[in-house]
Design a protein that fits this description.
The chain has 79 residues and is of the alpha+beta class. The protein has 3 helices and 4 strands, in the order H-E-E-H-E-E-H. The chain has a 4-stranded antiparallel sheet with strand order 1-2-4-3. Strand 1 and strand 2 form a beta hairpin. This is Putative type IV restriction endonuclease.
């Protein structure tokens, strides 16, 4: 992601929980259990446009990490 691109992403509304790493925009959310992580991921799977986007979801018994591909956040910006 270009210097301009990550700055623009972080300036957008509603991304206070996100950081931009080398692999793309990333957010980590604490959860109480593996079951809670599964519920959060199930809810995320209902987000329009997420399926097939290349988003990486990582779940553990204490955290869900979401990494957006560059193409996904650019798509949302142009809609």
């Amino acid at each position: 992601m270009s210097d301009e691109g990550w700055r623009e992403f972080l300036a957008a509304d509603g991304v206070a929980d996100w950081v931009v790493l080398h692999g793309g925009a990333t957010a980590a959310f604490r959860v109480a259990s593996l079951g809670a992580a599964a519920h959060l991921v199930a809810a995320l799977s209902d987000v329009p446009g997420l399926a097939g986007s290349g988003t990486v979801l990582t779940i553990t018994d204490g955290r869900v990490t979401v990494r957006l591909t560059r193409d996904l956040w650019l798509l949302g910006r142009h809609q």
